[in-house]
Design goal:
The protein has a single domain, classed as MetI-like (MetI-like fold, Orthogonal Bundle), CATH 1.10.3720. It contains 14 helices and no strands. With about 300 residues, the protein is mainly alpha-helical. It starts with a helix and ends with a helix.
Amino acid sequence: MTTQATVTSQQQAALTELPPPSSSFKRFLRVFLARKVVIVGLLVILALILMAIFAPVLAPHDPYAQNLANSLQKPSSEHLLGTDLLGRDVLSRIIYGSRVSLMVGIVVVLLGGTLGMAIGLISGYFGGVIDSILMRIMDAIIAIPMIILAMALGAAMGGGITNVILALGIAITPTYARLMRGQVLSIKQQDYVIAGELTGASNLRNILVHVFPNSISPLIVLITMNLGMAILAEAGLSFLGLGIAPPGAAWGAMVNDGYRYLLAHPLLSVAPGLCVMIVVLAFNIVGDALRDALDPRLRGD
């Protein structure tokens, strides 16, 4: 009787010491927001989203309206960042360009991430010949630098936002596939996955219920960083003339249009170039903080 009472008291003490359900989330937030620069990165991303959503409200002028009489105007109260060669307001085009950058980043990551994670899940879970074939294809793609592959695909398919998205989506697919495969190879050896197989659970159920949810943490970090990478790659393709077709407002194309007048009108290139740099840096900072917060080894669990 005394022994039973002792065990019960020990169990109660252990339960008392267990952290509340919200403590894990609080610990995540504490690690994630430990550096002030992360808050700045989040504010930049929020500003980008709001600017893209409310572009018609925020833009002081029509970004596509040409007025050759106002060609290459310097900054003034009417045109805060001046005008380009065709007399279009630079600030308005930067604001509308945020829509292109954000949309390309999100859709490219959704396309490449979904395709890559599906390939990685199938390859890692089933192994064998399927794994060998899929991974050799991914190796062939990943051997080519992303921007070079995107340029080749973009040149083959032509310009335009749809082809840019397809080219970049294909280019980033192998990174998701290889990361997901590595996660699956580790997780499928866990007892709960083996138990599911022994109890007759289907492969699809095991993948969706046990394998995929436990593989997603590092992929969230990769998604965040690839958002910035996709925006940078789109800007690069637009700069080279393989991206958004004129007269569409795209930051990379604006840098290309303005570099000829860099000495006389530096804002034509510098302003959109700074936007690309700041946004990509913000996504990288937030992705790095997410990695620290989601990795139990780094957050001190």
